[in-house]
Specification:
Chain lengths: 151, 532
């Protein structure tokens, strides 16, 4: 059960997200991955986002109806992208929040992190191994002499 | 007003980088000192680096921007008339909770800008006077690095060896060597081996969201426990509204809101401000009275003026191989000070430094990191992300901005904090010298990125969310007409009022300021003790 989105909005959001981050090789599309659920939770927690998303999602549906007499999810990927680009310029605030929150939900996801070749875990407690580096090189820096201005 | 409290000898306001160092110095020599801090204690084990959603917190409740965080302990800052947004944290430890712990000192020339370059003013103190306090501060903060840097007079041995370079540091060092330019492993207030009961850094990356290992120095884990053990008192959730005066014009204490929201007055023989370069002028301006109609200690008219931030330009290089650039302390690897000192042939005075920063985690990379904006959505998203993630290195060009009267902190006529205390507004613009200097820095940054082998270089000319350094708004000087405090940090107007934070900086240098802020605070403490 969505916290904020209606059934229609849930379906619509999934198809939009599939165009924000489409599938590619091992990487699932954002909508198919369920990022819509994450988005729903974020929007539900903010009056400002509720306002933006209610209007923004409606604008996407209306653009699909007026340009193609169809629902957004029934359109081809190219037609969907064209509509999203229109909405990106007409509803800028909505769209930048949509992209931001999609990236948040997507790149936190275990499947995506593993597809990046990383272990799906937070930075701590394990940290990362790191090469100490070539400290011998500093001898050359020293050899070039004093660098600060005498006062 | 609630019941009367015992007068203390020394009242410090603000428990950040400077307030902690100053309080410790006095407490260890037996002084009666109380610090009031509006924030609370952080719990290092609760930092979000152990959470799956760790990267989201820097966008919300752990943002470095107080306006984004909007916590009750924060005060908002009107930043609409500034291209750079001021950043800070309000807690025991102050902004060191958030900082990257890059720890370069000022240079001897930084204190002699008027004499050497004919601009701004000389400081009334110099490098040699501060040197013992730089060393003392290093010994408490814990600094990793290596001595011998030809860009500095010799320094005392560092507490632990340098932070590992990783591929980013190695690759960039090779680029600097190709051009024959200065570079050096960063002095970092992050210990690379166990020190003083704290764990060694394990290169997890995001120092800015708090260090669960306590490898990154923050004053809540080093200075404060020592100060409290020595007898210092620290009261949290205590937000100072104004400084009060005795009939003879000396400071009497401070009025503050306690944890329950009650108004209290704390009396003191001496009052010391360590609220940072924005909080301190805010408090002085909010302490206007019949005796001081333009704000306390403001007979010079310079309280809030001469705000310096250090403008930052970001030069990002993308490499053709996996650099694992998300690993390692994000702000610390190597530095270059090739273009630090003035060279008149460049068409500007003073200079800039390069701080080599690393890449970011997946979410922050997608959001564009310190670059110009998010990775594109749609069909090109995957390719754009994959060529960047783990494969980028960042040069932060940090420039010396000069003290200018029009860059300032004032009191916003409408904005307040959650206790109704008027909040500050910052007004800032970049002068011709700063613009030329940064342009030079961006071009040289691109040159060294290319020399290091970057296949693509992207430049963000001005980082908006880069107001990490808050300096100059109550400056030091010998002439009361031209400065707010003297070389001992003492107000020219109010003889038992002292300022110890970055507000007292006469000029900004072109390095991160905190080692110098703390050395100045320890110097003021030392003089205070000698004169008491
Ligand atoms: C994200 C980030 C990264 C940074 N990285 C670096 C770095 O790598 N290297 C470096 O050198 N510097 C860095 N800095 C800057 C560094 O943190 C500051 O220079 C330093 O903390 C300033 O010390 P301070 O004592 O002047 O003020 P702060 O440390 O900001 O402390 C001021 C304290 O005063 C308290 N206060 C303010 N007003 C009141 C009031 N009215 N009543 C009660 N309490 C009050 C505040 O709550 C706060 O705790 C960074 C800063 C940030 C935000």
């Amino acid at each position: 059960m969505a916290q904020f989105f209606s059934d229609e909005q849930t379906t619509l959001t999934a198809s939009i997200l599939n165009r924000i981050v489409p599938s590619d090789g091992d990487f699932p599309a954002a909508g198919d991955l369920g990022v819509g659920e994450f988005l729903d939770g974020v929007v539900a927690g903010s009056a400002e986002l509720k306002r933006l998303f209610t209007t923004g999602l409606m604008a996407v549906s209306m653009a699909a109806a007026s340009q193609h007499s169809a629902t957004f999810d029934a359109l081809s990927p190219d037609a969907q992208d064209a509509i999203l680009r229109d909405v990106e310029s007409s509803q800028q605030e909505f769209f930048s929040e949509l992209v931001r929150q999609t990236y948040n939900g997507y790149y936190m996801n275990t499947r995506v992190i593993e597809a990046l070749g990383l272990e799906a875990r937070p930075p701590q407690p394990k940290g990362f191994p790191l090469e100490v580096g070539n400290l011998d090189l500093i001898e050359q820096v020293k050899a070039r002499g004093i660098k600060y201005r005498q006062v | 007003m609630a019941g009367s409290r015992d007068e203390v000898d020394v009242l410090v306001i603000g428990a950040g980088a400077s307030g902690a160092a100053f309080t410790w110095s006095l407490a260890k020599d037996g002084f009666d000192v109380l610090c009031l801090e509006q924030g609370g204690w952080m719990d290092p084990s609760a930092y979000t680096t152990t959470h799956d959603d760790w990267e989201l917190h820097r966008q919300t409740d752990f943002s470095p921007d107080p306006n984004v965080r909007g916590l009750d302990v924060d005060y908002p800052v009107n930043n609409q008339d500034s291209p750079i947004a001021p950043l800070m944290y309000n807690a025991v430890g102050g902004s060191t909770i958030h900082w990257s712990a890059h720890f370069p000192r000022f240079h001897p020339s930084d204190f002699r800008v008027r004499t050497l370059d004919g601009v701004a003013d000389d400081w009334p103190i110099n490098y040699e006077q501060l040197e013992p306090f730089f060393d003392l501060n290093d010994s408490i903060m814990g600094v990793s690095g290596i001595t011998g840097d030809p860009a500095y007079p010799p320094k005392s041995p560092r507490q632990t060896p340098p932070i590992p370079f990783g591929k980013v540091g190695d690759t960039m060092a090779a680029g600097f060597e190709k051009l024959g330019w200065h570079w050096w492993p960063s002095d970092s207030a992050i210990i690379s081996a166990p020190f003083d009961g704290r764990g060694a850094c394990n290169n997890c990356g995001p120092c800015d969201i708090g260090c669960t290992r306590r490898a990154k120095a923050s004053t809540d884990i080093n200075y404060w426990p020592k100060a409290i053990a020595a007898g210092a008192k620290l009261e949290i959730s205590a937000r100072v509204r104004e400084i009060t005066l005795n009939p003879d014009g000396t400071a009497r204490g401070a009025i503050f809101y306690d944890a329950d929201g009650n108004v209290q007055e704390q009396r003191a023989k001496n009052v010391v401000l360590g609220c940072n370069g924005i909080g301190t002028p805010r408090l002085l301006l909010n302490s206007a009275s019949a005796m001081h109609p333009d704000g306390l200690s403001n007979s010079s008219g310079l309280v809030g003026k001469n705000l310096m931030f250090h403008p930052y330009s970001i030069v990002s290089g993308i490499f053709d191989e996996d650099m694992e650039s998300y690993a390692g302390p994000n702000g610390c690897s190597i530095i270059s000070q090739e273009f630090y000192e003035t060279d008149p042939s460049r068409g500007f005075v003073r200079g800039y430094a390069f701080q080599i920063a690393r890449g970011a985690g997946p979410v922050t990379t997608a959001q564009g990191g310190m670059g110009a904006g998010p990775i594109p959505w749609g069909g090109n998203h995957r390719a754009s992300f994959d060529r960047l993630f783990g494969r980028n290195a960042v040069i932060a060009v940090i420039g010396e901005d000069l003290p200018e009267l029009h860059n300032q902190v004032t009191i916003d006529p409408e904005l307040t904090d959650s206790d109704g205390i008027p909040a500050p507004k910052v007004t800032y613009t970049m002068s011709d010298n700063s613009i030329k200097l940064m342009a030079h820095g961006m071009a040289r940054g691109e040159e060294v990125m290319t020399a290091a082998g970057a296949i693509d270089v992207q430049i963000n000319p001005l980082l908006r969310r880069g107001g990490w350094h808050l300096l100059g708004t109550a400056r030091m000087g010998n002439d009361p007409a031209n400065s707010v405090v003297d070389s001992l940090g003492r107000s020219h107007d109010v003889k038992n009022l002292f300022i110890i934070d970055g507000s007292v900086f006469v000029t900004a240098g072109a390095v991160n300021p905190t080692p110098t802020i703390q050395a100045v605070a320890l110097h003021i403490a030392d003089q205070f003790k000698q004169n008491s």
